[in-house]
Amino acid sequence: MKSTSSLSLIAGAVALAAVTGFAVLNEPSGGDTAEARTAARLPVERTSLLCPAPGLSDLSETAYTAFTPTGGSGGSTAAGTAELLSSAKDGEAKSDGKSDGKDKKGKGEKDKGDKPVVSLKEPGKPATGKASGADSPALIGTATGRLAPGWTAQQTTTIEAGDGRGLLGISCTVPDTDFWFPAASTAKSREDYVHLTNPDDTAAVADIELYGPDGSLKSDVGEGITVPAGSGVRVLISTLTSKAADDVTVHVTTRTGRVGAAVRTSDDKTGSDWLTASAEPAGTLVLPGIPADATSVRLVAFAPGDDDADLGLKLLGKSGAVTPAGHEELHVKSHMTAGMDLKDITRGEAGSLMLVPSEKSRATPVVAALRVVRGKGDEQEVAYIPATGPVGARATVADNRSKGSVLSLTAPGAAGTVKVTASAGSGGGTPVSKTYKIAAGTTTAVTPPAPTGLKGTYALTVETQSGGPVHAARTLTEKVNGIQMFTVQTLPDDRGTVEVPTARQDLSVLDD
Q1: DSSP states of 200-234
Q2: What confidence score (pLDDT) does residue 257 get?
Q3: pTM score
Q4: How far apart are CA 177 and CA 468, in angstroms?
Q5: Three-state secondary structure call for residue 31
Q6: Beta bridge partners of 489
Q7: Sequence-separated (6 or more) residues with CB below 8 Å from residue 405
Q8: In the predicted model, is pLDDT for residue 324 greater than 70?
Q9: CA-based diameter of the chain, in Å?
Q10: What CA–CA distance (Å, rounded) separates 69 from 504?
């Protein structure tokens, strides 16, 4: 008789992969055959996204856009749903690690009868929603069925005046248990908050660690932060340490449960924006989409392992890769945050930064992000570009407008070809597609295609066609009170499909 426990393991892994998009099944020893190693790619059947509370300003206006690309159902006929719902009211973590957040009923739970802020009805056409004021809560979203593969949501907030002014954009994040945020700060001119959102029905417990130029900024306050079920918590990172540091790396982990995490930065001179998590630690990193007119670019990197990292810098521009004069290398000590002022590195030409090991035989994993400033004097505005993975099979960014969108595509290795599709507009329009070939070691910045007869906003989907990996970022610009406010979102693979082990025989029948 065959082992029912082995069959249960296989079935469980297949189910987990189809629902979450993340599953690994290790073969037993002795089963290393080509047939056993075969796998099929199936579309995910359920996706979660978390949008942090928009901000702390009464002057804020926030637009939400949700979108699922067409062609991601894999033949599924399940209609599915995709909704972004208000969480319980966000609270601010206190020194005991507990949150003061409560909803309107004071129970710490969202109102089950709340109408969704955004409800997506069909693939291929964006759905939108709005919020205003400082009391707007975080949003918790779930997509199922044919709306799940590739589902994305964009949160874009405009704050016209005040210290937190700016165009704050973020692609709503997938819940996880581990996040790295280089380029945060505890300097007196900064007010940076870590936003944690818990999508589940039980409380999560998170830890926040800070690392400055001299190593760990130890504090007991960042340990054991409770994030209530279905709620959001924000933590002012300068309250976690008494030391002011311009460059700080924030590490968020969970002891129990999972959260969505993002850092909202605010600076006295340059305004505010969202800092999203860097790609996982790696020896080589790509940070795409530095605007051509950047007046100041600062690189911040962190080595989480026990070894120091020596990194070579390469600027990938329109004509090829160059080593920026005076900024050839960056030394990053183990468990210490390193920063480098690259000034106006792009010099009028859009580009991307690639970090590579100075010695090929010694690739020490690092995380990194860029702080990018445009404008001068009172018209300065800031945005952040974290290291990101390639677009892979497909990646999408929502909330593109008729004007103000720039798409940056970079091929750090071999040349690559991608297809860019502009979806129908949220209020109408016909999709269009265009193919771009990116030469090896270059960045191509383009005004992306827009749907014919566009009404409302639209989504851009980038699909790899051939060649080497391509990394991408979208810059969104909006002129407010004479200031060119902007925000940058990277486009990593949407993980709309997952590799599922293929059974070698019919598992529905067991032999006696």
Answers
A1: SSS-EEEEEEEEETTEE---STTSSEEE-TT-EEE
A2: 98
A3: 0.89
A4: 30
A5: coil
A6: 474
A7: 447, 448, 460, 474, 475, 476, 477
A8: yes
A9: 80
A10: 32
